[in-house]
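Quick illustration, no need to memorize.
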Amino acid sequence: MGKNEIISTENNLTKKDFVGVFWRSFTLLGSFNYERMEGLGFLYAVMPVLRKIYKGDDEALKAAMHRHIAAFNMTVAPSPFVMGTTIAMEEKAKRDKTFDVASINAIKVSLMGPLSGIGDTFFWGIFRILACALAVGFAKEGNILAPFVLLLFFNIPNFLTRWFGLFIGYRQGHSLLSEMQATGRVQLFTHCAGIIGAMSIGCMIAMWVSISCPLQFTIAGSEIVLQEYLDQLLPKLLPLAFTLGIFACIKKKMKVTAIIGGIVVVGFILGILGLIAM
């Protein structure tokens, strides 16, 4: 199969275009940040294909770019599967003007959790340990091949998963979209994916945002720990309130640098006063 073989006659997508997405997928973490995480890397990976799909329609291209710079985060090895599915959905969106483009990001979000769970289990929990164990065996014998054994045994399944995942995601994406469109399940899937996304955000707030109130009082000989009462009202109440406050600032179009500066100043003052602790 040559590089110029046509994969999609509709938008003149060739194998070379998909090879480009495959190699660009290795830069997914190159611009990781805590606002959009892997979003910019995802957009960079699919950008050449988007330019072909929306060739001659700058407004549609801008809308697609805006969609795919949104927050995205998952284990990197299976990420090309999502990229392939995304390409198929973008083609569907161009072809069918009634297609709900919100379902594109909804499906991306719904795939992040399951594929990350699988990816973390296999690549970090199995392949990495096996590769390190084999490499350590060679290293203990003073064999110069030790680092190469590590790289090969870890990256061979990594490369294969990326390569075949990209094409499977693209080809299965077409049939998946056709079936969902015909049965009217796109709207239901979008709604359910939104629920899953909200639940995921709630879990991340509880796990990653660590804010508590250290205030204690003694009343009538009884020690009152304010944080214990807050936990009785709602566990992780302060992290939730803090996150919702930041979200409100973002919705008001405040600059991220201003929000970060405000967090530093307010956090410093409240910390000095003993009202909050990390």
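The first helix runs from residue 15 to 24.
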